[in-house]
Amino acid sequence: MNSSANTTTVAPEGFNLFIYRVKKKFTGPDPYLTVAGVFLWLFTYWVLCEGLEIWRFTKLPGPVAISKDWFSTTPFQGISIFTAEYYDHISVSCQRILIAFGIATGLGVPLGLFMGWSRSIRDYLFPVIELLRPIPILAWVPLSILLLPGFEGPVIFLATLASFFVTTLNAMLGVDSIDEEYFRAAGCLGSSRWDVFKNVVVPGALPFIFTGLQISIGVAWFSLVAAEMVSGDLGLGYLIVDAYMNNVTVPMVIAMITLGFIGYFSSACVRALGDKLMGWHVKELAQQGR
Amino acid sequence: MAKNTSKTEKKGALSIKNVTKIYDPTGVNVMAVDNCSMEIAAGEVCMIVGPSGCGKTTLLNAIAGFHSITEGSIHLDGELLCGPERPKAEQSAERMVVFQHGALFPWKTLQENVAYGPTVQKALSPSQAMEKGGQMLAEAGLGNFIKKFPGEVSSGMARRAEIVRALINNPKVLLLDEPYRAMDALTKQIMHESLLETYDRTGVTIFFITHDLEEAIFLGDKVHIVTTRPCQLKKTVEVKIPRPRSYETQSSEKFRKLLVEVNDAVHEEAVKAFKAGEREMA
Amino acid sequence: MMNYLQALFSNTTTRRGFGAIIIFLFIWHIGSQLDEWTGYDLLGIGLVPPPVDVFTAFLGVMPKTGYWMSWVASFSRVITGFLVAMLVGIPFGLLLAVNRYFRGVFFPPFEILRPIPPLAWVPASLIFWPTNEMSIAFVTFLGAFFTIVINVLGGARNIDISYLRAAQSMGASQFDLFWKIVLPGTLPSIFTGAAVGMGITWEVVLAAEMISGGGTQGGGGLGFFIWSSYMGGSLEQIIVGMISIGIAGYLSSSAIRKIGFHFMPWRRLF
């Protein structure tokens, strides 16, 4: 509709469009500022730790020491991209997150949807959830270690619990956010209660559900790291504590940065999945210029 | 096919008798509709005009079966929809509502939206429903947009699609609640022509709520002017302008005269409503 | 009083809510006795003490000063970390929002550090800071800081441009724009961020108290209360600790809501 006004200029398509966008991006100051910012930050860090060796910064590994070890085939302090151990820790943590996030999503989304959909289900379940929710996840640590067997049990339980509350509440709020008129429209078009659930409740709550899932995967990582630090035999959280106990600082920082990357990547995956499932919502936001 | 059947035997006569609706949400009784009666013949375009917040939508919701009435009765083709012993009408596909803010499901394409009704009523198989939906959208001039989501088309197109979504179910009555409220005058004009064209084709009974007096006269067979809250019938103006009507009708002498007549009746109520609003705010 | 109770229980939702909580306690009781009654123990649930025992244990710790000292210790840590995070985070977030160059330089490193879970900082900060207390304070600060900054930035950038234009057309200076439009316009997001940040602060304080075994320096705090109950093997006290922290967290977030309501009278629904 909009393009009819300027039919003379040909809009770039395909590969040309991509080139056009890249060019456009690099005409502004933003990408240069980003590079400058990251460089400035690394430089300050280097000056403090390795350049001038100021105060207690000497106790921390500087960027040079970290990158030397991280990319070395024979790491000084035991962990690099060439050691199998590094990937063991990563894969263990990722598996735990996948299990915990999967359970929490599988239970939380349906439960939240049903709570939003049916007055009586909400009346009975919501007070209990609200009673348990203010207890910080980490306060569950000792109890779960005592009750659940092995190392895996408590770690996965804590990550699941954290993610479950967030997911459930967001799914419920998602149903609340649906405009009453969609329910009325569905009713007068002759829907059964089940039709309404499938065609109005589920898709209408999706934007909130995915916002919730993005928060939920972040919270899952948060709790997982905490649980691994307290009780664990493998995993990135354990790697951090283990390095601390053994007085080696480089693996500790490597684990922190790795956690940052994986955490970012996992929430980007959730976002991408959400955008794929909600084409209508993305287009609607684009139309509103957001 | 649909044309012939609906032309020969018109259905959808609404009779609203002494309807009263009292809301009691916080212990304070609010009377939204008070002893309101009107007769709407089958295949008539009935326009309801009145000040904002006067209870017109309450009346529409009661006919649609969204909520109960306190007293009185509403019949459709002699059949009781709601009344003293059955305070709330059952929702069914014979009464279709087009909402104030538009209620096409944003997560379904226009075609899926239109096909929704017949599919859930199991009147048609999903693929048949999609096909018929596509056809009807094309008839309404939306053939190029059937795969678009409501968020991607203009509000005018969305509104036309919503009317198609209602009509695919062959309703007896179409209930419209200020459907063209937020549109500019030019778009409105096109919407009116499209609605009239649809009406001429299907002959469905239309119950249409509006604030716009010109719209009321241009579209309607009868214009019912209702009072400020509680909603009562104040005056009925019959519009004896022959169909089909076009935009030229609006500049005719007859049209002007009717407009003055309606305006006189409405203005008085609007002033009352405004004063009442001031008192409530104070 | 009776009338009030009657009115309360005439509401279906309240009635069901109380019913649900009673059922929950009942299931808890049955679960805790399951082992004794049937000899079958699901996931060690038989270890959980019944609600009555927990209640007695609660009454037992109530008169002890040590218990209340942990409240004071935890609260003072939470409040310190949280206030510093607010004091640094709000100006930082606003600067990111109003100045393009500042955002260009400082936002990317911020975004790189943000996904690192706050607790992963604990060992590094234990190494860096001279005292335990300082490292706990630092991690607490970090936990709340990232959330607050992100919320402030988002809120300030989402202010309707027409408000700014309206103010400019009435002759507002840059200074006025900031104090009269940008800051009040950001308040709702500041309080949203504060509420979330408060939750994270509690988590972090708890974890730091448990990991560093806060007993050696300074008062133990509620996290240490739970941890020492765990070490002492008293399940009743662990649950008492959990409930106490739940109450403490709830009190802090409702305090934020109250303050938010006070500062934003135009927002009835916060």
Question: Which class of secondary structure composition applies to the elements of chain A?
Answer: mainly alpha
What is the arithmetic mean of pLDDT of chain A? 82
**What is the CATH homology-level superfamily of the largest domain in chain A?**
MetI-like
Tally the beta strands of chain B: 10
Task: Label the overall shape of chain A.
Answer: flat
Please state the second-level CATH architecture of the largest domain in chain B.
3-Layer(aba) Sandwich
Describe the structure.
The complex is a heterotrimer of chains A (290), B (282) and C (270). Chain A has 290 residues and is mainly α. Chain A has 12 helices and no strands. Chain A has 2 domains: 14-60, no CATH class; 84-287, MetI-like fold, CATH 1.10.3720.10. Helices cover 76% and strands 0% of the residues of chain A. In chain A, helix 7 runs antiparallel to helix 9. The model of chain A is unreliable at 1-8 (pLDDT under 50). Chain B contains 8 helices and 10 strands. In chain B, the strands form 2 sheets. In chain B, strands 6-7-8-3-9-10 form a 6-stranded mixed β-sheet, sandwiched between helices. In chain B, strands 2-1-4-5 form a 4-stranded antiparallel β-sheet, with helices on one face. Chain B is globular. Chain B has 2 domains: 2-94 and 173-281, 3-Layer(aba) Sandwich (Rossmann fold), CATH 3.40.50.300; 101-170, no CATH class. The model of chain B is unreliable at 1-8 (pLDDT under 50). The relative contact order of chain C is 0.11. The chains are: A mainly alpha (290), B alpha/beta (282), C mainly alpha (270). Chains in contact: A-B, A-C. Chains A and C meet through helix 2, helix 5, helix 6, helix 9 and helix 10 of A and helix 2, helix 5, helix 6, helix 9 and helix 10 of C.
Task: Output the keywords.
heterotrimer, A: 290 residues, mainly alpha, 12 helices, 76% helix, disordered N terminus, C: MetI-like fold, 2 domains, 11 helices, globular
How are the secondary structure elements laid out?
The complex is a heterotrimer of chains A (about 290), B (about 280) and C (about 270).
Chain A: H1 14-27, H2 30-51, H3 63-70, H4 84-117, H5 119-132, H6 141-147, H7 152-177, H8 180-188, H9 193-230, H10 236-245, H11 250-277, H12 279-287
Helix pairs in contact in A: 3-11, 4-5, 4-7, 4-9, 4-10, 6-7, 7-9, 8-9, 9-10, 9-11, 10-11
Chain B: H1 2-8, E1 14-23, E2 30-40, E3 45-49, H2 56-64, E4 71-76, E5 79-82, E6 95-98, H3 110-120, H4 126-139, H5 155-167, E7 173-177, H6 185-202, E8 205-210, H7 213-219, E9 222-226, E10 233-238, H8 253-281
Chain C: H1 2-10, H2 12-38, H3 51-61, H4 65-98, H5 100-113, H6 122-128, H7 132-157, H8 161-169, H9 174-211, H10 221-231, H11 235-263
